[in-house]
Amino acid sequence: MKASVYIETTIVSYLAAKLSRDLVVAAHQQLTAEWWATRRSDFELFTSEFVLREASIGDESMAQKRLDLLMEIPVLAINESALSLARDLIDRKVIPQRYAEDASHIAIATVHGLDYLLTWNCKHIANARLQRSITVICRDAGFEPPVICTPEELTGD
Residue 43 belongs to what H/E stretch? Predict the structure, then answer.
């Protein structure tokens, strides 16, 4: 059985975007493209309605590219457990209210029991300083959180 991965919006955003002039962003784009081309078939991919909504914002042609990348990926349900867990992440001040959808990404991947959450959002999701708090809140709610990581970290055999 393949491990499961939640594909967060930044992944398809980096895949669809023109190569950045910022060297760090360009490196992330390249790592993402390499992971997508060589590693994604090793995993069972999932996404959510939040990702589809975020991916559809902005320039119409770029939004279409992002949505095309997500087209064949199953969409996980946004259920009451996920909404409650997202609210806990916000209420316990791990994720700011202003970034509620970031809490929702974590919550959806968690309540659906996914193995990994793949993202380049290192401010509110793949942030080492937040991981312990995220884990405690998820476990307090009766769930085991996914490993939150970037494509660079989800490599190897």
Answer: strand 43-48
What DSSP character marks residue 144? Answer: P
pLDDT tens figures, 105-130: 999 999 999 999 999 999 999 999 99
Amino acid (one-letter) located at 109:
A
Structure token pair of residue 64: 């279409």
Tell which residue, 57, 15, 18, has the closest CA to residue 151.
Answer: 15
Q: Where are the alpha helices (DSSP H) in the chain?
A: 9-16, 23-38, 49-55, 60-70, 80-91, 100-111, 128-140
Q: Are 43 and 116 in contact (CB under 8 A)?
A: yes
Question: pTM of this prediction?
Answer: 0.95
Q: Which residues, in sequence order, are bridge partners of residue 76? A: 48
pLDDT at 68 over 70: yes
**Domains of the chain with bracketed CATH:** 3-149 (3.40.50.1010)
Task: Give the largest Cα separation in the chain, rounded.
Answer: 44
